[in-house]
Design goal:
The structure is a homotetramer of 359-residue chains. Chain A has 359 residues and is an alpha/beta fold. In chain A, 38% of the residues lie in helices and 17% in strands. Chain A contains 11 helices and 13 strands. Chain A starts with a strand and ends in a 7-residue tail after the last helix.
Chain lengths: 359, 359, 359, 359
């Protein structure tokens, strides 16, 4: 029987979201004769009355949409619906309204594209409301468990690597230390992958606490071998060996913008005397046209998510594993972040290249 | 004890070769205190007298080298040394000269960066000469077995996808069918991956014989739904359902350049009446700056190859498998091409998107 | 009084056309309160009954449209309306139908984006029908007179230069001569500009007849100074010193695809013994996202074209001249191609760098 | 008679410097048989004893160097030699040492690649020391007078435009106002050119003081027409209508990093209630591979600079003017910055598109 499938994007945007939606629409419509409903602005569209959503037609399936960054459905990262922040400052459980929103749309199943935080919420909503749910992993941080890759990560690494490619010549021309702050709240995948790919000398990630004396030793060693510049990559959430972060301990600097990158730059300049400049890469890591790999992954995920619904397999997340598209129980995904393994291949490769990881 | 390690690149060049060499030099020199010898032009450098090679110093380890396409060691794909083509047209076994070349250089071990054809030859040379050998997989076609990815593939897919991104608007502006011929002698990975990522309507790969009537049906269906253009990707070695290829059966066209792409274009134009244009992507797929992923993979492979030598593990190939760098016996790699699986995720995704694969 | 302005794109597509249309819509609608009518497929839309056109609304003004390659209006380069090719093989003057098409749309003025060939036709139509007309120059060849730059040229040069950037490493890795055939039917601007920017050794343009012995001398000189590779750029319409072209004299090769590039490659290989490979860049030069310069130029042209209509200045072409947007009489543009000046700055620069121009 | 020509890069680095040096070396060596001496780190190399410089040989002429960002000669923007900052805090006239440095190198003439600030100093040195001098204009800000374009500008505009291309989708996905701070100390060319090319809604440049209420009106107007996001570009040195800048009046914020961009973002957020994010583009605007246009311009300038020396024309700057390479008296260049003309084509185009310029 013809089904009506809802699809939404949740949490921070990234490259490749539209490619998932396009693939799901093509598979659902041409493969199964189903109707796809695009929900606007994540769960916010299901909270609104009338519900904010639209039927996704052929216009959504062009190759132009495939190449577009961001999400044409819109997204939000405001508000856990189980403790929704109200205008008066209080918090309220609005989960019932969201579930009702799904019913108002007449949905037979829901596809949610998100990270592990979104999955925890969407799964709880699905269980409470009896909504058949399938998840598609996305996050520039690549910290979703049970999949080798999440959508948006490859493009973010490419963007950060290109920034290093641009900073290296100006660093060498002016004999400077260049610090690049990249995203990575819980996991340092972007920092370490781009650091290796972009030829960084020092990479600081949240998983490995850093000490200034280790950084100073590396800069001194580079000078001793005749290098006149250095490239440093810092993930936004790194902490010192004493457990300090810029956000947690405002004594570090009281700054909002460029917090940790600027802090590391100042410390390095003071300790080594090197002329130091800081660049905060920021939101350009999220936006932008998805690279070929993210488009391919997104297409594979979108098709497989619809196939799971056809097979009646729910409460699962599509996954890329060992050269194949498979699916995993969402129960194994939530509360199980995939951080950089301090004994894993990225760290071994970085150390093998002589990159200082701050310890 | 300080070792002398030779390293060479063999077969067609691709993006990321220099990143492997750089990583190996950094790991060997700074990690173990060893000397790295770069052999020029693949096995040709070992055939020459004096042997053509150079000690790889710090100059080889810059981030500039990391980003450079091609191979600064040079390469060649002329001549199986066990049946070397001589000037007089005869063939001669020159393997002994190559083994002697390694001895003249005083090599303790050899790292060869190549595809499965190169590995078959290099492994035979290593066994015959008692040379400890480690292989690093590279090939834009991604047809090396026992590794999820080989160096150069990701960048080639990106280049082919960018070509489709450029052909789509001009196809739509002029209501044309655009045919793009990409590389892929034994495996259609570039064609199908770029076809999915670039929004192709038809993708022909060597693994699936094609029939003109299937292509015609797809073009007619696109017209029927209001589409005024189509994108077609053709791997260079595709064959028809009757087993014909352009190279094998010169009756197809007697053309050297643009053989199969032009043939498919002509057939499509004749069968559908559509205005058709053909682009042969050619050597731009090989050259060019490696993308972030190829640089990361290459760095991981270069470090691990040197570590294998330190551990005394030989006759093995470094491999990317399930989110890790591991190593596999070369015996399982040679004569075991990794082609596109007609039931695998790429084909399933393509079919799920409604892409016509010619059957 | 509120006007209705028609806009169409004519001739081969290129990057930046949509940016002109967007700018014209923004200026006409928000600046003057006028209505813009987008005519489909060049003059073909005016020949069709009912006329094929649409009112261009806010959807046309997004920054997404600004970045899109091709033309969302569609275009055609079939058929001079004064001698239109009919199905029965005859030719008929259909200019009256096009003029009537403008009247059916109620147009007060017409903006045509095209090259000098299109301008000749559109100007004649405008004069015959009493239609106030303004032209906007576009052409990847940059051969429109009375303007320093036409839309699409800068992006095409970037694309051709990137191709050389990708061919250089593979040429050097394999010790090859790489020939790149680029577009340029009447003028060699793309070839010589990309040749200089991409580090070519030989550049052949239509404005300078070439001799094989000059090419051979250059290749020999490169070998003598130790270079193992060469980059050669060939514009599609070059001719030998004897006046031969591949198209004009089929004795050259009887090939349709890769005509002149392949011919030059074969001649070079035969004359020098060098391993030679040929790449025909083709339609990727037209398509693709416009670069910053083309988007800026297109925006300036679109605004100025509408301002000209407001000022009642017709039969003129907008123009970039000496760091400003101005306008020129169309009478001075048609039949007055801007070819590469053999004594001009591009040729002087190329010769100053030691690039062989074939003479 | 064979000459010895010195060449140096002065002031902030940018894309295309190496292409100038390469072109000058090729022209001087192959065209005239002269020797080129590359001086290290701008005038600092002439102050050092022994003088820091090297003969530039064939290695400097590869196409790899042509594509490299930064300057392989090194540069510095420390220290006016007529009032050189000494370690003890005093200032000393060290011009004599620099002139002596030129004599120690046996230079017959000097080519200096710089902006107007560097030209003022280098010209004074040349006059005082009797050194024949030719200038080549470079600056990402495009504020050098008497030339349509300076090296590095086109690439910087491309980089800033790409940043907007990446910020737009994430702005639209999250319904945000995105502020991008770009370079531009004295002139707003990058900001306004990238703002037009990247589809910005508001562009603030140093030449036009801004008022918050104008910005608020524009944001409100966008909301009223249904837009859920806005793109804002801010040049680093903009000032308010009251003459305040962030640097001049620390009351604005006391911030070093992200000064003006963050200030504008905070003000906008407070005035409009919009969710606002700020990105400071920083040094990625300087570094990176030069685009085709900068490489072409740099090549033309390098050749022409050497030709001027051959013709005995000194105290002049090479210039791009009206589709040609010419030269201008340096006297007309210094103290004559080329800022954005408030009645010029960039401003007219921006206003024609409805872009708010803050007034």
């Amino acid at each position: 029987m013809a089904k009506r499938i809802g699809i939404l994007t949740s949490g921070g945007d990234c490259a490749g979201l539209n490619a998932v939606v396009r693939a799901a629409v093509l598979r659902a419509r041409d493969g199964y004769g189903w109707t796809m409903i695009g929900i606007h602005n994540g769960t916010a569209g299901l909270l609104a009355r009338p519900v904010e959503a639209e039927e996704l037609d052929r216009r959504m399936t062009t190759s132009t949409v495939l190449r577009m960054g961001g999400t044409i459905l819109g997204t939000t990262n405001k508000g856990d619906p189980f403790a929704y922040p109200m205008a008066d400052g209080s918090r309220r459980d609005r989960s019932g309204e969201i579930i009702e929103g799904c019913r108002l749309l007449g949905l037979d199943a829901l596809i949610g594209i998100g990270g592990d935080g979104s999955f925890a919420i969407l799964r709880k909503l699905a269980q409470q409301g009896g909504i058949p749910f399938v998840g598609v992993p996305k996050t520039i941080d690549n910290d979703v468990a049970q999949t080798e890759r999440a959508i948006g990560y490859a493009t973010a690494v490419t963007t950060a690597t290109e920034a290093l490619d641009r900073l290296q010549p100006t660093a060498a021309s002016h004999s400077r230390v260049m610090v690049l702050e990249v995203m990575g709240r819980d996991a340092g995948h972007i920092a370490i992958a781009a650091g290796i790919a972009g030829g960084a000398d020092i990479v600081l990630i949240p998983e490995i606490p850093w000490r200034l004396d280790a950084l100073k030793r590396k800069i001194d060693a580079l000078k001793a071998e005749g290098r006149n510049f250095a490239l440093v990559v810092v993930a936004e959430a790194v902490k010192t060996a004493e457990g300090h972060t810029v956000d947690a301990d405002r004594g570090f600097g009281q700054r909002r913008l460029g917090g940790i990158g600027e802090y590391v730059g100042e410390q390095l300049a003071a300790a080594t005397g090197a002329e130091t400049r800081v660049t905060v890469l920021g939101h350009v890591q999220r936006g932008g046209m998805p690279g070929a790999e993210d488009r391919l992954l997104a297409s594979a995920f979108g098709v497989h998510a619809v196939d799971l619904i056809a097979q009646g397999k729910f409460d699962r997340m599509v996954s890329w594993w060992n050269r194949d598209v498979i699916d995993m129980p969402l129960a194994d995904v939530v509360n199980n972040a995939h951080v950089v393994d301090p004994a894993g291949p990225l760290v071994r490769t970085a150390r093998g290249l002589g990159i200082c990881l701050g310890d």
